[in-house]
Specification:
With 174 residues, this protein is α+β, with helices and mostly antiparallel strands. It is built from six helices and four strands; from the N terminus they run H-E-E-H-H-H-H-E-E-H. It is elongated.
Length: 174
């Protein structure tokens, strides 16, 4: 492209210019050219989340009866939003990769499944807040057409049976 393609007074492009030829490629270079490159960065995020737990500061009785504050590491819940921040991309870019980049669909799905599983297992072990995680991964509450369904898992108390319990023998008819 030369200066002849522009009006010397206004700097505007003249009709018939071939501006597109100045571009060496169409669109920006993809951030990840292969699924393997994305997977490597996703694994870096997973490692970072594990190696950088959150910390809860708790008071503990120390030597001499003094109260000391101690830092207790807590599991960091991985999130797709956290992954996007780690990758320095928007959530919309992530969604676009899932819908428009056939080469990245499998790794995006795998990453989301790993994140969901980590949160579910962390909540099941009380390492993460089960109420928050249930809402985050859409467990427990569903609202459709104004109807809310709440799923609560309750476990019956084990029945205490004594061998000499007279009420048991009365029920059996013995």
């Amino acid at each position: 492209m030369s200066e002849l393609d522009r009006d010397k007074v206004t700097g505007k492009f003249l009709p018939g210019n071939r501006l597109w030829e100045a571009r060496s490629s169409a669109g920006p270079k993809p951030m990840f050219e292969t699924a393997e490159e994305l997977q490597e960065c996703v694994l870096e995020y997973f490692s970072w989340a594990f190696e950088n737990p959150l910390h809860d500061v708790r008071p503990m009785k120390g030597e001499g009866g003094n109260i000391e504050l101690i830092s207790v590491p807590k599991m960091r819940a991985m999130t797709v939003t956290g992954l996007c921040l780690f990758l320095n991309i928007s959530r919309q870019t992530w969604e676009n990769w899932k819908s428009r980049r056939a080469d990245l669909v499998d790794i995006c799905t795998w990453a989301e499944n790993c994140i969901r599983t980590q949160k579910l297992e962390g909540a099941a072990a009380n390492l993460l807040n089960p109420s928050i995680i249930a809402r985050e991964i859409s467990l427990g509450e569903t609202t459709e057409a104004g109807l809310a369904i709440v799923v609560r898992h309750t476990f019956p108390e084990p029945e205490e049976q004594n061998e000499g319990d007279s009420s048991q023998t009365e029920q059996d008819g013995s």
